[in-house]
Design goal:
Elements lengths: L2 H12 L5 E5 L5 H8 L5 E4 L2 H10 L5 E4 L8 H4 L3 E7 L2 H14 L5 E7 L12 H10 L5 E8 L7 H21 L2 H4 L4 E4 L5 H6 L4 E4 L1 H4 L2
Parallel strand pairs: 1-2, 1-8, 2-3, 3-4, 4-5, 5-6, 6-7
Helix pairs in contact: 6-7
The structure holds pyridoxal-5'-phosphate.
Length: 220
């Protein structure tokens, strides 16, 4: 077994059964994803539309691709036909443009997305505030979109208390939205995507149902 497969197998063994591993293959070559594929893992994520298109064309069709990067509206048409989940919807404008583009680029199907929330104390990270996300998800009506849950990134810090505090704030919002949604929407609102290579054990303790792991899988 190659080292990428070993990493995937080791990390999967650490995850509770209800938690989905997303292997973040961004910046890594197609060959690295081919190696990872041998482990049986089928869910990968990219952060650039061009790279997503190239990899999806070159790799087996049973891979589920997630998109996790900042998406410019003029690139929506590249991502919609490929991505099974767009995790990084970070503005109302993007949400509305995806909703409008869906019938053309991905007909007869609702687009699964996550709302990216700003939970880090750092200034630079994009996304909705927790309050904006609550309003949007409980009140908004987008006929071509299914909002499946929330995505967030914690601060880049070694202070585990801060990281846990940030993840807990997202989990609290997730629970609050779940309680506020009508039953038929709550059914699909099932994904809390938080935790990366450096902080996923904390995210698991805070209730993540999906972790996005790149360097711990693909770098030696
Ligand atoms: C790059 C990236 C990851 C993976 O980060 P690692 O530290 O390599 O595990 C997860 N989520 C998002 C949104 C990313 O951009």
């Amino acid at each position: 077994m190659n080292s990428i497969c070993r990493n995937i197998t080791r990390i999967k063994a650490e995850l509770p059964k209800n938690v989905t591993l997303v292997a973040v293959s961004k910046y890594h070559p197609i060959e690295a994803v081919s190696e990872a594929y041998k482990s049986g893992h089928r869910i990968y994520a990219e952060s650039r539309p061009q790279e997503l298109v190239l990899k999806a064309a070159a790799l087996p069709k049973d891979i589920q691709w997630h998109f996790i990067g900042h998406l410019q509206t003029n690139k929506i048409k590249m991502v919609l036909p490929i991505a099974s989940l767009i995790q990084s919807v970070d503005s109302l404008h993007l949400l509305e443009e995806i909703n409008a583009a869906a019938p053309k680029y991905c007909p007869n199907k609702k687009i699964d997305i996550l709302i990216e929330c700003h939970i880090a104390h750092e200034e630079s990270k994009q996304g909705f505030s927790l309050e904006e996300a609550f309003e949007l998800i409980t009140k908004g009506k987008y006929e071509n979109i299914r909002i499946r849950g929330l995505m967030g990134m914690a601060s880049l810090t070694s202070d585990k208390t801060i990281i846990a505090e940030e993840f807990n704030s997202l989990k609290a919002l997730f629970d609050r939205i779940t309680a506020a949604l009508p039953a038929e929407n709550a059914e699909h609102f099932d994904t809390l995507s938080m935790g990366m290579s450096g902080d996923y054990p904390i995210a698991l303790e805070c209730g993540a149902t999906m972790v996005r792991i790149g360097s711990a899988i693909f770098s030696e």
